[in-house]
Amino acid sequence: MFLDPRAILLFGANVLLLYLTMLVNSALVGWSIYLLMLGPMLVFPVLYLRHQSYFICTLLTGLWVDAALPSGFGLFTLGFLFAGAFIFQMRIRFRADSNYHLIVLAHGVNFFCILLVTMAMGFAYITSLGFWLQVFVTSLASHLVLLIVAPWFFNFERMLFALCRLEPEPEDLPIL
Amino acid sequence: MAKLRLDRIKPLVALGAFLFAWWIIPTTLKSFLEASFSEFQAPAWVATSYLDDLENFWARRSHSKVELIEAGREVARAKSLYQFNSQRKETLENEIQRLEAILNLPSRREFRYEVARVVRRDLNAWWQQIVIRKGKDFDIPVGAAVVFSGGVVGRVVEVSAFTSRVELVTSPNFRMAANFEGDVRPVVYQGLPQSGFGDPLGTVRDAPQDVIASTQIPLKLVSTRLGGTFPPGLMVGRVSWLEPGNTGIFQAGEVELDARLLSLHEVAVLIPLYPIDLENDVP
Question: CB distance from B124 to chain A under 8 Å?
């Protein structure tokens, strides 16, 4: 099959996560808190899908995120594919059946995204203390919330697989 | 063995190929992709905004009759005040037109107000933008001024079919000409990276040396006609401290902006009634 049906499900779940995050961000504006939770979007496609399906799912997710956020178009598309290629190479090391490794990966990817957007969008304000203070608060809040959201999101994706009667196990693991 | 090696570097090869493709893809195609994805997402945000309105409608329906009667009375009082102000404004406008005709002054920019609901707020260290529920369907132009009851909100930076993105006055990317109330000399206002604590701030530069600001009597920074985007006299913020700038010739200081900017629900877009005429328009 050209495209694993799970890739479409995972893309849909990513779209939902982004939409919910932005709704929460819109409501939290008064408290000056912003959540950037892009890390979990990459974890399941990179660990569960064959390379072709992973690539298409990640590409579409990246384009979707780029269109939704005011960052430069292509920033997250390229960032996701870069991080994805890195994780894909060593995905045999991660246990996809338990949430522990997945949560660690989600935090790693999320931190990479924060770093990426800070370098791309905040280079001009690198000397501003206020800027770094808000980046710190955003990172802290995002990673704290991610501790709750990431397990929920991974279980939600597993539930989608079960509901659609799709293979709940990772495939195409590299042969050592 | 060769197949095994190829399998292992497949993600890197694919990434390299994609990076090369992304590099050679024409900008128009990228813009098309961005616009397509944005337009695809817009209905979800518009629908969310309408659901919000519906929620507010049902919330108001639960108010008691006594509360509604009291609210109606308040609206009636406000309406009579606005009717009186409207008549006065009309009289003053006629007077201004008469004087302008006598003095043979050039024409001023006229605007049409388009009130729009805020559907999304994206305020963080990296960007300070809001999305409003009107776009090309209401002829919103890129660069149009956006205001609210407290003064300047920002400027339209991107227009889609049904939504528009507005760069807020708090954003470091936002810059405009302004002047202090009662002083016609222009100064430069620019947003600042926000720390997230306290009220939003901006900065003012190129203020003349003789201008004095203090915490007891803060200066009001208002918009000016310079630049052609904003009508004059709209509140930008308050300046309670000025100090010599980098050059030593002019002064600079922080501008305290309206805290309501962080929780806007409705704004007005000022759409110019005719394009800028640099030769005939008043600067």
Answer: yes
